[in-house]
Every structure is written in structure tokens, then in C-alpha cells.
Amino acid sequence: MVTGLAAEAAQIRAAARRLGASPPPIACATGPEPAAALCRRLIAEGAEAIVSFGVCGGLDPALRPGDLVLAEAACTAPDGPGAFSPVPPDPMPLDPDLRTHLATALARAGVAVHGGTVAGCTRPVATVFDKRTLAAATGAVIVDMESYGVARAAQAVGMPVAVLRAVLDPARQSVPRAALAAATPDGQIHLGAMIAALARRPWEVAAMI
Prior knowledge:
Distance between the termini: 30 Å
Oligomer: single chain
Strand content: 15-25%
Largest sheet: 7 strands, mixed
Order of helices and strands: EHEHEEEEHEHEHEHHH
């Protein structure tokens, strides 16, 4: 399992404890290149399949916070002002057998999942405008910063890979800058940085809540 936040990795470990099972090997880093490097490390250590797990931003307005997406493909888009044009290359299909295995297990547990493409960026896609633009350019339903890098690294060596992500911020909601300031490259949340950012942008308090 590869996650972008330490809290996501902690959820996997906690779930394994509740089941009385050993957690799978987990690696955590924010961003496509660090996540890809950790994916390659897990493969070198004997992983037989890779899952990119965690939260994501919604691009499809039909998706609500908490909805799970078990992606069918991953794509990437250039970053920067006006970044989401021209349209990036065709999406990279993810392993259909692994996806079916996970979908079946989730269905048995009574958990509904959505399909679609996950878009990968090197920076947070935080505004409603950027989300709408990225969705139009790629056809993706969600966006995160790790899954495309993980998928590329796994598929380069023929490793089955899946993406299972939960929508955190929906398509019609922007993410406050103070929230973005709190994330560190190793997936931790720096509360001091968040408080400092809110002190500079006090009008974001309501959005943070």
C-alpha cells in the first residue's frame, strides 16, 4: 500500500489490528516522484501487488465527500498556470484483475465504489476552477498527487496496481490555502504551519471548519 498522508497509513494499520491481522507493507510520501520511489522499494522488497490508497479531490460533481473510487485508469496533466491544456496522453489502464478482486471484496462488505479515471498532478488542485478545468481536459473523476506515479512505477515492471481513493473535497468546493500549508513532504500534518497560515488568512477559518 502506498499513501500520501501518514494518517492514511495509520488507518490501514488500525483496520488490520481490528481484524487481528498483520497490516500489509505500507509506504507514505506526498507527490508522484516520492510515491513512485517508495513503490519501487516495496516491489524490491517482495510486494506482489500495489494499491494507492487514501483521500482525493473530486472532479466529477456527482461524487460526494466519502464516496470511494476504485479507478479503472490513471492519467497525468502538466502543472502551472493554464496547466490543464492541451489534453494529456491517453489514460493508463490499471490492472483489471486486481480491480475486480478489490471490488468483489468491497461489495461483500457492503461498500459501494465508483469507477473512472484518476488524474495525477504534482501540486494540489485546490480551486473549483482548476478542478473543472482538469476534469474537462482529462475526463478524470478524481485527482490526487500519488496515484499516477505509483501506477507508472508498478506497471514499468509488470506489477499489478490499483487505486482506491475516498473523496475528501468535492468538485464544487475549494480547499483553503491554510489546509494546504499544513501538509509536509513525508505525509505529516504540521499544525503550527496551519495555525500560522490561518493567522495570515483569518477569513479562511469558516472554510476550514
